[in-house]
Amino acid sequence: MNRKTFISRMLILSFIISLIGGNTVFAAPAWTDDSGVSLESEAGIVIDAQSGAVIYGKNSKEQYFPASITKVMTALLVLENCSMDDMVTFSHDAVYNVESGSTNAGIDEGEQMTVKDCLYAMMLKSANEAANALAEHVSGSREAFADLMTARAKELGCENTSFKNPSGLNDPEHYTTASDFALIVRAAWKLEGFREIESRLTYQLPPTRNDPEGLIIRQEHKMMLESWGQYYDPEVKGGKTGYTMLAGNTLATVAERDGRTLIVVILKGSKPDHYTTYTDTRKLLDYGFEGFINYNPAQEETDLTGLFEELKALGANLGDEAQITIDTEGTITVPAGAAYSDAARSISTELAADAPFGAIARLDYTYEGRPVGSAYIKTEQNVSIVTEPENQGQESQNADKEGRRGIPGMWIFIGAGIAVLVALAAGLIVMRSRQVKKERQRREERIQARRRRLEESGISMEEFERLLKEKQNKEKGS
To answer: Cβ distance 253 to 242 under 8 Å?
Structure first.
């Protein structure tokens, strides 16, 4: 082979290789390297608020004292159970049952404020008497409210959290984890009222005996304050600070960038000053925003026909004319550079209690085995999910053959239509009965828990309800 022929063949081979290379399927990128993330605090986590995906964690499942970030949970429960215009009366216990020297807004025994004013006092000023008064307003006592806090945390998926008071003051049985508390912040951030409070930098409380002109309270999260130049970050939209001798410095933060929202929780700050909690938060926000991206399954899942068939294979009683959609609120979080298809997808028919109206199933996504988000499948049709016995299909075919020997086609069609309607109605009844049963069971559990707490305090359920009714009537008349 002469030199000219050799070169020609090599050029052709190189061209072919380049064409093949252009169609090469590259491996999905690995979960973003976190070796450069080094926190000074003992524990921390960053999650994506939309997808719930855990992006990074350090000791995130270890128990620590939360201090005043506890008030995020208190605010969540108050917003879920009260009107902002409700009047709250400050009892002697609410005002004076706090640690000496702890933060307060100067509100005195017997004074009244709206729920809205109390929430601002609690979240911006971190006023402990406001937290106590709100707890009593919701549950009748701080102890009963603390039980409600722990129960609500479990509903949110918290596995290692126990609350003993609404403020976060020291108690050996009052603890949480960074992972658990991120779930609490995520739930609170979904509420418009919470976001509105968190966004405020100042707020004027109404006149009180101690402040006749009304106290002006200010946001304490340094990353929200321009005057704290080296810590200020316009992307930070809300959060809560905390400190006790036992807890050290704690910090919860919510930040937004390019349509994404991240939540960072820092526990047990490493130094007497709380500024390392801010620098640790900055590291986690940069890591989460720069190293990861989000996809919306509603935009990416284009083969709804295939998804429709998958649902029917799972036992969904979907009519041929049924239309399915994917909830636009669904989100998944993957490393920057990854494609949507790099995430593994599965379908679950087990729906959460807060599933949106019309949801019939859920798409769950993982990346390298990590949960990275989900999206609900919805339809306007009433649907039940039924798993057929193994031989039911054959039995149905045999019955159909026998039936066609003596029944005209029109009656088969009518009978099939009636059967579908009956199945849909039965499915709807079953789903509703299950929902009612669960609601009744949860209500009974709450009643029994309250009864046990009251018995331990030496008060009967009837006496408690009488006192509560007298208190409500008194507040209405005042």
So the answer is: no
d(CA 12, CA 283): 50
Whole-number Å distance between alpha carbons of 351 and 331: 17
pLDDT digits (tens, 9 = 90+) for 261-308: 999 999 999 766 668 999 999 999 999 999 999 999 999 998 888 888
Each residue of 369-380: pLDDT tens digit?
Answer: 999 999 999 987
Query: For 460, phi and psi rounded to 5 degrees?
Result: -80, 160
DSSP E strand boundaries for 268-358: 292-295, 324-326, 331-335, 344-348
Of the two residues 43 and 389, the one the predictor is more confident about is 43
Measured between alpha carbons, how far is 337 from 473 in angstroms, rounded to an integer?
Answer: 61
List the one residue out of 44, 15, 35 whose CA is nearest residue 285. 44
State how beta strands 359-367 and 370-379 pair: antiparallel
What letter does residue 175 receive in the DSSP assignment? B
Report which of 326, 309, 320, 319 is spatially closest to residue 360, judged by C-alpha positions. 326
Helix H or strand E segment including 241: strand 236-244
In whole angstroms, give the CA distance from residue 212 to residue 441. Answer: 49
Chain segment 173-227, per-residue pLDDT in tens? 999 999 999 999 999 999 999 999 999 999 999 999 888 888 999 999 999 999 9
Measured between alpha carbons, how far is 168 from 188 in angstroms, rounded to an integer? Answer: 17
Q: Which stretches of 51-161 are DSSP H helices?
A: 71-81, 92-96, 115-124, 128-139, 142-155
Tokens 């316009």 — which residue? 234
Burial class (CB in 10 A: 0-12, 13-18, 19+), 105: buried
Alpha-carbon torsion (141, 83, 112, 66), positive or negative: positive
Q: Which of these, 255, 63, 243, lies nearest to 167 by C-alpha position?
A: 243
Beta-bridge partner residues of 46: 56, 264
Q: At which residue do the structure tokens 């169609």 appear?
A: 23
Query: How far is C-alpha 357 from the geometric centre of its chain's CA atoms?
Result: 18
HSE value, Cβ hemisphere, 13 Å, CA-based, for 303? 6
How many CB atoms sit inside 10 A of residue 455's CB? 11
The Cα–Cα gap between 382 and 388 comes to 19
Tokens of 34: 């976190």
Closest C-alpha among 104, 72, 90, 174 to residue 134:
90
